[in-house]
Amino acid sequence: MKRYKNIVLAILVVLTLVVSVITPKIALADSNEISALAVDKYTREPIEGVHVVIYQGGSTIVAEGDTGPDGYFRPYLPLPDGAYRVEQTTYKEGYVPQVESKSYVFSDATYGLGEVVVAELENQPLGYIIVKVVDTDGNPIAGATLKATAANIARSAVPNPLFTQTGILTMEADGSYSLTTGTDGTVLIPNLIGNTSTTITQLTTIDGYKIDTTVQVGQITETNTTATVTFVDPKIPTPDPTPAPEPQPEAP
Q1: What does residue 10 show for φ and ψ, rounded to 5 degrees?
Q2: Which of 121, 143, 189, 195 has the most other CB atoms within 10 Å of its CB?
Q3: Where is 53: in which H helix or E strand?
Q4: Closest by alpha carbon to 216, among 250, 179, 244?
């Protein structure tokens, strides 16, 4: 009898262990989860305030919201098996809207093998080049014109708000830029995507000055998103208005 009780007790212990192992898996059934993380593509810094939408299938929205200070959008929503797509629908100023959506297919949650994934949304920062024309004393020259080679520009993006454009920027048919400096002697080439080299030459300057014939290159890199290119125009020397005295004949 005692032996029988021991066998029963052993069976109960084994059943208890089996239940303790199986229970978490049962709790994970149909518990696929998707979170989103928006970051700067190069610095990896989190980006707050961008809107994220999670779709099931083609167009059914199952969750949406904004990323927090840590860059995350966490809906904490159990998702059944199926196909899902994570899309970023708004973009922070200073970034180019070229984030690709992320797709996932879940198929094992019904067997207690749910997945938890983080959709990382890399936002590429925009840069800009400040082109300056000054005289040899550093005074700004307004109205100077320049030409810049075609650059990798995000035309639908918003110019960086940290700089006020006073000059004139015109896109030409061949993809180059015509620049005219403003009252502060500057003109801005905005919305440049990283790893972009822009070659700039000066065409004209104001009366009394000579153009700086140096060919300048503005470089936007992954983490260095601003560059300043400066042209220095020397002043043309003015002739002495006092005529030189005529030589006098030598006395005999």
Answers
A1: -65, -40
A2: 189
A3: strand 51-56
A4: 179
The backbone torsions φ and ψ at residue 163, rounded to the nearest 5 degrees and listed phi first, read -130, 135
Torsion angles phi and psi, residue 186, rounded to 5? -125, 160
- E strand or H helix that includes residue 25: helix 2-27
Q: Give the number of other Cβ atoms within 10 Å of residue 169's Cβ.
A: 16
Number of residues that make up the chain = 252
Band of the pLDDT at 13, cuts 50, 70, 90? very low
Q: How many CB atoms lie within 10 A of CB 29?
A: 16
* Of 66, 67, 54, 64, residue with least CA distance to 106: 54
Query: Strand 51-56 relative to strand 82-88: parallel, antiparallel, unpaired?
Result: antiparallel
Rounded to whole angstroms, how far apart are CA atoms 212 and 230?
A: 10
Amino acid at 55: Y
pTM of the model as a whole: 0.66
Query: Does pLDDT of 142 surpass 90?
Result: yes
Place of tokens 């995350």: 72
Q: Which residue has the tokens 């005999």?
A: 252
21 pLDDT more than 50 = no
pLDDT digits (tens, 9 = 90+) for 63-114: 999 999 999 999 999 998 999 999 999 999 888 877 899 999 998 766 667 8
Q: Strand runs (DSSP E) across 89-115, as ranges?
A: 95-96, 102-106
Q: Which of 206, 200, 190 is nearest to 231 (CA)?
A: 200
Residues 108, 110, 112, CA angle at the centre, nearest 5°? 75
Residues forming beta bridges with residue 209, ordered by sequence position: 235
Pairwise CA distance, residues 160 & 95, whole Å: 9
